[in-house]
Design a protein that fits this description.
mainly alpha
Length: 267
Amino acid sequence: MGETARAYRVLLGSRVRSQTSYRTSFALDVLASLTAGVVEFAEVYVIFHNVPTLGGLDLTAAMLVFGLATLGFALGDLFAGHLDEVPTLIRLGTLDVLLLRPLPVLAQLMTGDVQLRRLGRASVGVAVAAIALARTDVDWTPARLALLAVTPVAGAVLFAALFLAAGAVQFWLVDGGEFTYAFTYGASYAASFSPAVLPLPVRALFSFVVPAAFTAYLPTLAILGHAGPPWLPGWLGWWVPAVAVAGWLVAAGLWRLGLRHYTGAGG
């Protein structure tokens, strides 16, 4: 166990050092990520500049949803976003090299390409959520404080599970990256707004099939004490940790099934 942990630390450490060795380039990458997050928030702000409420949320509540969703996605993307490279690894036969190493393939993939630039977008999520919390009067209880603390972690786990599931289905699709992007990055976009603004089929998809609503919208309702719509009540926000664990277990099972299905680059 000690040697295995040391191997992971070496892989992760080498990746971090390679990114930070060129400081100017690294700073520009982080700045680009931060700018992308600011532009996405500007879209939310412009919308609420013209309407007082949208999907049952005012600007402050929408800011909290956006902040938590952005932070959760950035953290999930940091550790698992590079799983969308699985189609390339399969086509080039690089995955076979990982299978030959005495380490789990998934662990090698998740520690082999951690992109620190995604912390720029995470900082936007933290800032927007902090401003939203400062603008609202929340009846803080130990349970709500705990939910606020666990929501970004649960959101990161859920988004990481989506990336993992998207990578797993590539063992059958081989070149279905564009198809799975609709669910991974689409979930990120859908999580930044109230599901009530989406058409009914899309709302059902990103609430109950792809649980984007559990990454930020439902926890926000629970934290602020809002009842929520009848079809997606606010009390579901308290179940976010359980949904995150269940989502990861389902995605991990799909990954194991796909890896057993894989027969190598030569077929």
